Prior knowledge:
By secondary structure, the chain is α+β, with helices and mostly antiparallel strands. Helices cover 32% and strands 13% of the residues. It is built from 20 helices and 19 strands. Strand 14 and strand 15 form a beta hairpin. The protein is extended. The model is unreliable at 481-630 (pLDDT under 50).
Amino acid sequence: xxxxxxxRVLGSRSxxxxxxxxxxxxxxxxxxxxxxxxxxxxQFLIPRRTIDNKVKKKHPKKPGAQxxxxxxxxxxxxxxxxxxxxxxxxxxxxELRLIVRTYLNKNNKGHLFKHNLPGKWWVxxxxxxxxxxxxxxxxxxxxxxxxxxxxxxxENYFENLRKSLDKIPAKNILNYDETNLSDNxxxxxxxxxxxxxxxxxxxxxSKGNISIMFAATADGTLLPTYTVYKAExxxxxxxxxxPGKARYNRSKSxxxxxxxxxxxxxxxxxxxxxxxxxxxLIIGDNLSSHLNIDIVSKCEERNIRFTFLxxxxxxxxxxxxxxxxxPLKRKWRDILTQYKxxxxxxxxxxxxxxxxxxxxxxEAIEINSKxxxxxxxxxxxxVPFNPQTIxxxxxxxxxxxxxxxxxxxxxxxxANRTANPLQKLRNKKLNITPGKSISSQEVxxxxxxxxxxxxxxxxxxxxxxxxxxxxxxxxNLDAEPVxxxxxxxxxxxxxxxxxxxxxxYNCAYADLxxxxxxxxxxxxxxxxxxxxxxxxxxxxxxxxxxxxxxxxYENQMPSTSADNKRLILKKPESCNAKKxxxxxxxxxxxxxxxxxxxxxxxxxxxxIPSESESCEDFEEQNVQNTVKKxxxxxxxxxxxxxxxxxxxxxxxxxxxxxxxxDSGMYVKFMRNRKEEFYWPHIDDISYTVKSxxxxxxxxxxxxxxxxLRFDCIDFSKYNVQ
Length: 721
């Protein structure tokens, strides 16, 4: 549909050319038989048939297309629009159309409009039908901290203000605020030829601003202005031809600091206060630069009271902000536009011309300045004192909380007024070569290496701590341990008969005092287990090794080794063999039968499961240990990857797609369902570091529905997702 209705064709019959009030009057006269319908038609220029139909109450509906929604439904929409605007989330025309479409879909009325969406003309007619309750206005954006103010803040403010205003006349109440006059007149509508893509106007502008302090009393009196330039020095031409009694200053930033504010207070406020009798009240914002000890002492000497406005609320509680600065800025844009037109060579406002422009501005608003100032004090509830003028502007005020809309929508609007910032993550510096870019995968790899480095440093710290703990324990071995008498009878004796070995990558011995018995008295203290030469010969798999291995269950028969003194299990020839136990004959006649022996297993028989253990259990235990870290990774290998979480570790089964370098690869992950794995609908591909790979899985068995199953490992030990 186009932007305008089709025009009436010339020569066609004219439709309604009378008002509804004229029709009602004519129908009333004809109904009471004062005049006939023919006379009423000639007198009111209304068709006779129309008058007769109204008298007989025929065709009561309005002519033309009928309303799609009922009056009650449109009233509900009005309530939603009003509530959204009150909570700072006003609705545009397009959003109104979408709201109506959502309402129609929920109530199975999508057939009322074409394509199930109201048109632009429906919105225009809707606003025209309810123009007494709805209107379109240009919005002013405010910060969320300003929108989060509540009634409690203002109730406390007005309670204190009531005490401060006691017996103070309007001429003794003053409000001050600083504002700036910019060097940009803004945009305005101009006339161009049709289809101009870039309408432009040649005019020099800049982002410069000049700060001015305004002060006005509640009876409409405007005190002399105080201008602050952004400069280090003040020149004579910057202070000439300006308003009467106006004062000028400069600062490095161009704004009011504590020194400039104190000078303004001494040169403008003190002379004003000395002319008045009785207590005086000054209302302003709570900036820290607006108050110091010197100003407070001078206020006490002259009976001046200071009242600060609630924070982040000056847009509704500051009298000058509410009713004075708006007309002032609009007039300033007009004056600045004329200045730019007549001075095209000036790149920005010449400070020598500014006093003259300021004088023209104050003369232009002088007619309405008193009325605007008084209106500002009234709109903020100060003079006359009326807190309801501000409280009713807050949505959560009791008198305004009569919305009859859905509570879910009301809660959403309330939550939308409060801040909900995103979580700030900890940032770390990346040492990148100048001119070189970096990807997110490289950042992730950098963080992983940093965590691995931190983990290795922690392991070294644990080893040093364990060494120191063992040395301290050796020092205290000669001392008689303190043992409770009842516990000493039940505690078993432990005899160390073999060498104790530690891997430098095993941190299980960190608390060594818990491993050794408390009643240990005789031990060879000349041997340092941490400096054993034979420890260097232990085959230790380093974490940095980038290969994994399968141990062949059939070919690698476990056997004992006297060289490295490690306990290795053999597959038993018969599951029904008896368990062989080699006892220590030297301890046969010991007093305590519960003694244990920690013996070197290099000369013992191989381990044979007991009769209580079945052959299947033993084989299952060995099958679970068949996957070890030793074989080189290849593309299309299935792996079990470990993801470290804040509380628990999670494991995922995946397939290697591509090996990037010696430390990382791309893995496509699967999902677990009762130890059967399937591919998700959306591919889950991630960059994985080789140190995160727990084990390499064998070739899976494919199920009937495309699922994969790995029989070589018991996933119950892992938190597989």
